[in-house]
Amino acid sequence: MCSATFRPELDLAGQTVVLIGGSAGIGLETARCARAHGANVILTGRNPDRLAEAARDVGAQHTAAFDATNDDALEGFFETLSTPVDHVMVTAGGPRYGPLLEMDSDQVREVLSGHVTLYLAVARHSLGKLTPHGSLTFMGGTGGRRVTKDLGIVSAATAALPPFTAALALELAPVRVNLIGAGFVDTPLSAALLGDRLEERRAELRAKLPIGRVVGPADVAALAVHLMTNTALTGATYDIDGGQQFVD
């Protein structure tokens, strides 16, 4: 659960946080956490109805419904913002699993470059709107670090994100750039991916993980807000998987 007991210098009061993919899951929970720390939030998502519901839930300042992977739409969104923003977090997009030999060349290129391309586009288009003390926060994963047949090319895509984040942090300084490496997080996306196996997976993780419970969106949201407020953090990857990468 998000705590609003941060030190005053680590607060978001009066700041604006943009959540790209903020209509559900980690993005929406981060919006709630940011609001608890005094921030104004702007939500984007592809589904207008779900986005409107999320906006009512958190009292969003503004919303925009578009596909973040559409570069023209993404650029247009940032151009329409009338005031500067302090922090942008991107949770849009999801993993693609499957055997390598079953993927065609276009699919391989998409998996390898999809997140990097999206994150770079967000950085490029937000740069004129971000305040100098601002930050970008991206989502990666810990599960993809293990090479397996089932994961296919996901491991290669996962490996690209930490050095990409570090290099981008150097280019954008003093704007800070950080990456969150999450394991299984109990979100609607996880439910959609696992289907009937969801409860089985939850039980398995409760039994295996050193923390004895499943990581939820609020856990990731608390970390995201910390990355926004702690001005000493940039260019790094922060794992939050309850120890899953060591036991799963």
Please explain how this structure is put together.
The chain is an alpha/beta fold and 248 residues long. The chain has a single domain, classed as 3-Layer(aba) Sandwich (Rossmann fold). Helices cover 44% and strands 18% of the residues. It is built from nine helices and seven strands. The protein has helices at residues 25-36, 48-58, 71-80, 105-126, 154-172, 188-194, 198-208, 217-229, 244-247; strands spanning 16-20, 40-45, 62-65, 85-90, 130-141, 176-182, 237-240. The protein has a seven-stranded parallel sheet with strand order 3-2-1-4-5-6-7, with helices on both faces. Helix 1 (25-36) crosses helix 8, helix 3 runs parallel beside helix 4 and helix 4 (105-126) runs parallel beside helix 5. It starts with 15 loop residues before the first strand and ends with a helix. The model has no long low-confidence stretch (mean pLDDT 91).
